[in-house]
Design a protein that fits this description.
This protein has eleven helices and seven strands. The chain is of the alpha/beta class.
Length: about 350
């Protein structure tokens, strides 16, 4: 339906047309990127509707005048609606920019490429890793309990923060590539003082940890609220007896057992429970001894219980997921309105419209 931008109801009609188009686009974007039809024509159309709506709103504001309008009058109500619409225009524009990026069909590396020795960011990363290791030890200065050492557990070993965040980010993208439904759930097996659980809570809606050592577990329970991860849980128990691995989508472990046989037993215990497609983050090579039970996606990143063909498809889909991280607890802008499903669909493709606001 064509309507003149001078018509008093032009903004309402144009928004209704854009809403219908946005709904169709959102439904398309929740499907995997590989093999998905182009959205270029629809993006162009929704951009034209934005331009028309801007013009119509400007003409309507001019017709209404500056005000003030009589309280409770139709003019006052329309002035408020146009004010909200003006705010929504910025959101509309940001979504179009995100859609343009999605339509470029660019691929992103699964993990960041190693920094060149002359890249200034290499030095920045090195300092961040060193300082994180010191912070890790400051957060958890508690010595390992004798009972934990006797049980075969390693002491609380820090992982390079840059490595942990790289593989956790890939796990996040893999879940998006799989069109994951519901909250993303992360578990750190042998979480020590809980600092990696806190880091993971910035990517995943649920981030929990298992810890055998009572001193470490107490430190983790004290640390998490201080790092705004108060929703995270610490299970103080033996990971070999834990029976809830199937409840998690991403499981991280970094050689929690010193004894190789016990470590292999723990890995087998986890793999026997997890659902097919569970992402395993394990920055040590001996876990690959489990053969076909694990499919390597990238360095230190595996998918459990799927075929080599399925793993390859998952990796190819993940390369089409954008680089942005959006925690599900973050609220979308107030004036998003009917654009909300399309905003969320962009986020689900790894492109955050807020980056273009």
């Amino acid at each position: 339906m064509h309507i003149s931008t001078r018509h008093p109801d032009a903004t309402l009609v144009l928004e209704a047309q854009a809403e219908s188009l946005a709904s169709d686009l959102a439904a398309r974007l929740v499907r995997p990127a590989l093999g998905r039809r182009s959205i270029d024509a629809e993006t162009d159309r929704i951009a034209r509707l934005l331009a028309q709506a801007r013009t119509a709103a400007s003409l309507r504001r001019r017709a209404l005048g500056r005000g003030p309008h009589r309280k409770g009058s139709m003019e006052e109500a329309e002035a408020h609606r146009l004010k909200d619409l003006h705010r929504r225009f910025a959101i509309w524009r940001a979504i179009i920019d995100a859609l343009r990026q999605i339509e470029r069909r660019a691929t992103f590396p699964l993990l960041p490429r190693p920094r060149d020795v002359l890249d200034p960011r290499a030095g920045i990363d090195a300092i961040a890793d060193i300082m994180f290791t010191r912070a890790h030890r400051a957060v958890n200065p508690v010595p390992q309990a004798a009972g934990s050492a006797a049980h075969g557990c390693f002491a609380d070993i820090p992982t390079r923060v840059s490595l942990f965040l790289e593989i956790a980010h890939l796990a996040y993208r893999l879940l998006l590539a799989r069109c994951h439904d519901g909250p993303m759930r992360f578990l750190d097996v042998g979480c020590g003082g809980g600092i990696k659980v806190a880091l993971a809570s910035g990517l995943f809606e649920i981030a929990d940890g298992i810890e055998f050592d009572p001193g470490y577990a107490e430190t983790a329970r004290r640390t998490l609220p201080l790092m705004r991860a108060q929703g995270s849980r610490i299970f103080e128990c033996d990971a070999l007896g834990f029976d809830k691995y199937a409840q998690y989508d991403v499981i991280y472990l970094y050689r929690p057992m010193r004894d190789d046989d016990l470590l292999r037993q723990l890995e087998g215990h986890i793999l026997a429970q997890v659902r097919p497609g569970t992402i395993i983050l394990a920055p040590y090579q001996t876990i690959e001894a489990h053969g076909d039970q694990l499919r390597r996606i990238a360095e230190s990143v595996y998918a459990a219980g799927i075929s080599a063909k399925e793993a390859d498809l998952l990796a190819r889909r993940a390369r089409r997921i954008g680089p942005h991280i959006v925690h599900p607890s973050r609220e979308i802008p107030n004036q998003t309105g009917w654009l909300a499903p399309l905003w969320k669909a962009c986020e689900a493709n790894g492109f955050d419209p807020a980056a273009w606001e």
